[in-house]
Every structure is written in structure tokens, then in C-alpha cells.
Design a protein that fits this description.
The protein is of the alpha+beta class. It has eight helices and four strands. It has two domains: about 5-110, N-terminal domain of the delta subunit of the F1F0-ATP synthase (Peroxidase, domain 1), CATH 1.10.520.20; about 110-184, Glutaredoxin (3-Layer(aba) Sandwich). Helices cover about 60% and strands about 15% of the residues. Helix 7 links the parallel strand 1 and strand 2 (about 145-150). The mean pLDDT is about 90.
Length: about 180
């Protein structure tokens, strides 16, 4: 079976192309406005309880669409609604989280930015985040959008993930490296 990312790519690219086609006079597309809608439907499909309800064979495609649209809690832009109908019709609801991830990647690339996950064992202040971002932006050629998460398993230090790159200066990473050297 093909990987989810391979199946999701054409859907994400088509949705992003539609968003870029709706560019206003200032040159900004609608991809930013559609991000919340894409995230909402992807989050619903990823929810185990919703996925179980949507997998009910007694539901028609129209009922599945109505259920997702109602649970999304917002009106879906027409292209996002069409994407949802198409995915339901093709029996590929499971790819929606991957479509959302790829849509975000395309949107960020068009903006010249990237999502940045900063994991820390302890709470870090806004000043510390700003200082860390300033250092990171020297390493990356784009603007970073930070998301800070607490991860007590790191023991100390931080782990930063930008795209597929991970910069890990945590105590946990150092201990794991030391253990690997000692047991080799």
C-alpha cells in the first residue's frame, strides 16, 4: 500500500493551488484563512471516537460529510468542503491529517517560514524563547513560528524540531549517547 504522504500530496497541492488562485490585491492568498478549516476537519478524523463514528457502514457519504461539517464548528470554505467530499467519496478520510500537514508545509514555504517545536523539561519565559529563536534564525533561512512544549523526560536542556531537522541539546540525549558509547 502506498504511504499516506504519497496519497495525500495531490490533495494538499490541489487545495493549496486553489488557495493561491484566490489571491487578493495585496498578493496574499487564502491559504492562511483555510488553515483553520483544514485543521478542524483533520483533527476530527484523527479523533478515535469520531473516526469510529465515521467508520459506521450504515452512514452514507452525505451523512459523513454532514457529520464532519457540523462537528467542525465553522463554515467550511467551498474548496475545503469540496476536498472533504472528494476524500469521503474516495474512502480516504484517514489521509486528512497528512493533507493538513502538507498544506501547512506548502503554506509556510510560500510565506518563507517554518513551524518550530521547542521542547523543554521546564517552563521557559518569553524572553528565553525570543533569545533561542534569534539564535535559530541564524541557522535557518526562514522565519520560525515557535510552539513551546513541556517534556519532563528531557531532564534538562531543549530539543528543537524544524521540519525534519532536530537540534537536541537535552540532558536525555547526552545520557543516551553516553549509554550507547559505554555499551558499544
Amino acid at each position: 500500500m502506498a504511504e499516506l504522504s504519497t496519497i495525500a500530496r495531490p490533495y494538499a497541492e490541489a487545495l493549496f493551488a486553489a488557495a493561491r488562485a484566490g489571491t487578493d490585491s495585496k498578493g496574499s492568498g487564502q491559504s492562511g484563512a483555510w488553515t483553520a478549516a483544514v485543521d478542524a476537519i483533520a483533527g476530527l478524523v484523527a479523533n478515535p471516537q469520531a473516526a469510529e463514528a465515521l467508520a459506521n457502514p450504515a452512514l452514507s457519504d452525505a451523512q459523513r460529510y454532514d457529520l464532519i461539517a457540523a462537528l467542525a464548528g465553522q463554515s467550511l470554505p467551498a474548496p475545503v468542503a469540496e476536498l472533504l467530499k472528494l476524500v469521503i467519496e474516495n474512502g480516504r478520510l484517514a489521509i486528512l491529517p497528512e493533507v493538513a500537514a502538507q498544506f501547512h508545509t506548502l503554506h509556510n514555504a510560500a510565506e518563507g517560514s517554518a513551524d518550530c517545536v521547542i521542547e523543554s523539561a521546564f517552563a521557559i519565559s518569553a524572553d528565553e524563547v525570543a533569545s533561542l529563536l534569534a539564535a535559530l534564525e541564524k541557522k535557518f533561512p526562514f522565519k520560525l513560528k515557535p510552539e513551546v512544549r513541556l517534556n519532563p523526560q528531557l531532564i534538562g536542556g531543549v530539543r528543537v524540531t524544524v521540519g525534519d531537522r532536530v537540534l537536541d541539546s537535552s540532558v536525555r540525549a547526552r545520557l543516551d549517547a553516553m549509554q550507547a558509547r559505554l555499551t558499544a
